[in-house]
């Protein structure tokens, strides 16, 4: 079993330290900056052995080279973005397995936010590290992909169990929830979730991790096939990918 430590950095990013207790190996997922990582490892007596990158954006790879220079660690990242990941050693893609000591993650190709975005799923820990593909009550902007591409990626993640914990890379939940209520106002699960989120944020607490079960019930970007959402969008019977595209379009212009 992994020990997972969540580190808030920058304005709204989350980094994750993953520590395999049996081997002592420790990875950091998407290190934007190095100092909080170094401090958290020093506090726990851990030594970094790996970086797991989900995609190439600077706020996910900014500390790659500093950490590699200091620790001589191994950087794992998406094969489709090999040329854009600083210091990459191992390039992986859909169906590959990544090992951290005795722990193992299945890699999923989930493009849409970027062309080569990947996610890491640790089955034994029911933990998904999905970068900027899936957020709590949201999904990533389509910087390098089409709605069809992102919808396919989200459908792939929706095959995972409801108990899967969603460790995404940003604290966007409250803002995402405000948008979700604008397109899915009659959703009682969403209303309850937003009450919980507002209470957490008022105390300065994180809303992450969520679970896939919660996201199925509250995230409009996973509910494109749901008749209630389709009714609210006046798109009853439309193909889910079209409903997803319209939902994403509205989110892009929401304020």
Word description of this protein:
With 255 residues, the protein is α/β, with parallel strands linked by helices. The protein has one domain: Metallo-beta-lactamase, Chain A. Helices cover 33% and strands 26% of the residues. The protein contains 9 helices and 14 strands. The strands form 3 sheets. Strands 1-2-3-4-5-6 form a 6-stranded mixed beta sheet. The longest helix is centred in the last third of the chain and has 15 residues, at 188-202. It is globular.
Assign the CATH superfamily: Ribonuclease Z/Hydroxyacylglutathione hydrolase-like
CATH top level assignment: Alpha Beta
Count of strand segments? 14
Radius of gyration: 18 Å
Work out the strand percent.
25-35%
Q: Helices and strands in order, then pairings?
A:
Layout: E1 2-9, E2 13-20, E3 25-29, H1 35-44, E4 47-52, H2 58-61, H3 64-71, E5 74-78, E6 90-92, E7 97-100, E8 103-109, E9 118-122, E10 127-131, E11 134-135, E12 138-139, H4 147-157, E13 165-168, H5 173-183, H6 188-202, E14 210-211, H7 212-218, H8 227-232, H9 240-252
Helix pairs in contact: 5-6
Question: Short summary of the structure?
Answer:
By secondary structure, this protein is of the alpha/beta class.
